[in-house]
Sequence to fold (54 residues):
Amino acid sequence: MEDTKNDLVELTKEFIEFSDKLYLEKKIDKETYIQITKRKKGFLRCIEKDRMCK
Fold:
């Protein structure tokens, strides 16, 4: 189960990097970028909180 969470964390980090790249290349607008990163960073915070509780 822990390996699965690590994989999800890595995929989420890559997704955030990809959205950064798309935003810098002007392929997505600012609102879309904010929505993507806000949700993905929120997911990462939940995973970190879960790890601290265990």
Observations:
- The mean pLDDT is 88.
- The chain has two helices and no strands.
